[in-house]
Model the fold of this input.
Amino acid sequence: MPPRQTPTARQIRLGAELRKLRESAGLTARAAGEMIGANQARISNIETGRFGLSEQRIRTLAHNYDCTDEALIDALVAMAAHRERGWWEEYRDTLPPRFLDVAEMEHHAVPCAWPKSSTFPACSRHRSRPAPSSVR
Done:
């Protein structure tokens, strides 16, 4: 399989996380490649997002890097495995890659609920209005 010319933000992030794991294990790209029967260039291409990875390969690399955080490994596997063709794919030839990355990230984003305050602290009262006696 030829390397990707323009990896997506998701693929770049996956590679960066694998690189962090490798470096925290104290391994060189050459040593990591030897552990999976690949060369240094292959590991470099994986870590830059140019080569894809299977679930098994990610789990093998994580094991070789002494990663015991199952939640992190599962998240990395999901990052590599969850590839669906969204509406943005039909514009792949016309839009710059960064616009496509934003569309894909927005598609996978999780909505957040922010709490809202309905009371104001006493210090925010206007000076011309006295504070209630319970606040003084």
Q: What stands out?
A: DSSP finds six helices and no strands in the chain. The two ends are 73 Å apart (CA to CA).
